[in-house]
């Protein structure tokens, strides 16, 4: 017999057993699940399904950004979202720490500079190690990984076009759309697509960002603007109306003010008109001040658009299958047949950022994916609970929140039925270097003994709010919260020490112990 | 009791010997300095694997044993291990070759040999995997690993 190893492509046909599958472009194997999108949601769903002994494939493909940036397996969070963002946020906080350390007796130079190349290389190396980690995990969990662009031929057939051009047809019982969203750049603004970077590019920038303009008022604009400013770059944020429109407005204003106090310039009520390149390669931005209709001009090294994230579903062929999408955002509608993630086609589901009207958060996508796999293959009936999902805006002074905003509480229950307990506090560590703590603020929005929302601005807000979010999910009440004993000295204890109401009009500033 | 500086292989140490004859000057005796000598003559085969076919011909079908260094550009310890491997293997007078596999460029090969953490070093002889170690190692450990593969 001829020795055939897996590297050779020759076969002797008459020696093949009868049922041997020939190597063709279409696979006749049946999958239990094909997941389109290898991000937080897609990978979690695929791995969970594989744990239940199912045949799973995950497709992942990154269409390069407007500036040509591309990345590996893992989705937005790993490559151009949460992970690099948090690392750079931390890098900028270290700058503050070095400056504060003088007051604490450390012998540090008066001026410290950050080196973008060192930072971005370290961040990118970590991201690449995570890409690798995900590849290894998929192999360990027996999930087939295909680097290709997926689309639907019919509800049970996914066509995948690999980067080398080969096409495969995957027959599958179920499919999950987990393609996420991508930054939207307003193409009607001359020069925007040509010269504007987005969060897709920022973390992979080879050259230093220099003097940067961020256009947008979302958490992406504020978080990126925040760390760029902290790293020493001249940073401006152009906001059309108000910062953080999706969040509690009082907290949003405090966050913006805290950033302004650290030197970030907000160009409020301004909109970009055009972007051009000058002879030195810098970007000339013409913008309009909406208050007085004046057009102004300024030169920047980098312009980053953070003007929303849209679904890119036109290549999925959803229309042909009758999968309904929202007309404005192109996001996929879930909620069919009482299943939060089921689309209008019975065996096709959507999870993560692509799912219409659900929080765009990694842990939400992961949990929804895992629960979906359990329902599809594990006999579970448990639906994803999209209520009381905590999150944090990682601006230099972080804003952590679980529950609803004060505006929403008032509109749902009426102002007279809502009690808001609040406090301005000073983290102990701020006292010695005399750091500005005027934006450190907490409020708990209560309806009787029920806590509807807990909002906190302060250092490590993300770490602090996590525990309280669990408490609220377990039914913690206002009396339970305020009856709890604090840990001293922390900023978290200020949450359980809340007692001054907005209604009383009393000064909510926390004094001494 | 601490290991004397003489026994610690990673420490560069220079001792001055007293002149043993008035006509001969004091001599510097160098102990335990790692030599990274670039010479024109190739003392051993060291190559980067390009693809699966390359791996097949130069590792699986190699007449001499091959040490395969699975590494990545983003891996810090890999950058430290590389030179150590080269230095040690260069002293084996061609009895063993060194193949370098960048796991990002050769994912399939890395997957096939179940590489997870980096660096992973696998010793091949007669087309089969003989031994392996994971992570940055001290020179003694690397040396005994290489010796085990050769003999």
From TrEMBL, chain A:
The keyword NADP applies. GO terms for cellular component: cytosol; mitochondrion. One of its GO terms (molecular function) is glutathione-disulfide reductase (NADPH) activity. Pfam families: Pyr_redox_2, Pyr_redox_dim. Binds 1 FAD per subunit. Its EC number is 1.8.1.9. GO terms for biological process: cell redox homeostasis; cellular response to oxidative stress; glutathione metabolic process. Keywords: Disulfide bond, FAD, Flavoprotein, NAD, NADP, Nucleotide-binding, Oxidoreductase, Redox-active center. InterPro entries: FAD/NAD-bd_sf, FAD/NAD-binding_dom, FAD/NAD-linked_Rdtase_dimer_sf, GSHR/TRXR-like, Pyr_nuc-diS_OxRdtase, Pyr_nucl-diS_OxRdtase_dimer, Pyr_OxRdtase_I_AS, Thioredoxin/glutathione_Rdtase. Residues 31-369 form the FAD/NAD(P)-binding domain. Disulfide bonds join 77-82. FAD binds at residues 86, 150, 353. NAD(+) binds at residues 216-223, 308. The active site is at 488 (proton acceptor). Its cofactor is FAD. Signal peptide: none annotated. Gene3D superfamilies: 3.30.390.30, FAD/NAD(P)-binding domain. It is an enzyme of class 1 (oxidoreductase). Residues 389-497 form the Pyridine nucleotide-disulphide oxidoreductase dimerisation domain. The keyword NAD applies. PANTHER family: GLUTATHIONE REDUCTASE (PTHR42737), THIOREDOXIN-DISULFIDE REDUCTASE (PTHR42737:SF7). Belongs to the class-I pyridine nucleotide-disulfide oxidoreductase family. This is thioredoxin-disulfide reductase (NADPH).
Automatic annotation (TrEMBL), chain B:
Pfam families: Thioredoxin. GO terms for cellular component: mitochondrion. One of its GO terms (biological process) is cell redox homeostasis. InterPro entries: Thioredoxin (IPR005746), Thioredoxin-like_sf (IPR036249), Thioredoxin_CS (IPR017937), Thioredoxin_domain (IPR013766). It comes from the Eukaryota. Residues 38-151 form the Thioredoxin domain. Gene3D superfamilies: Glutaredoxin (3.40.30.10). SUPFAM superfamilies: Thioredoxin-like (SSF52833). Keywords: Disulfide bond, Electron transport, Redox-active center, Transport. GO terms for molecular function: protein-disulfide reductase activity. Belongs to the thioredoxin family. This is Thioredoxin domain-containing protein. It comes from Magallana gigas (Pacific oyster).
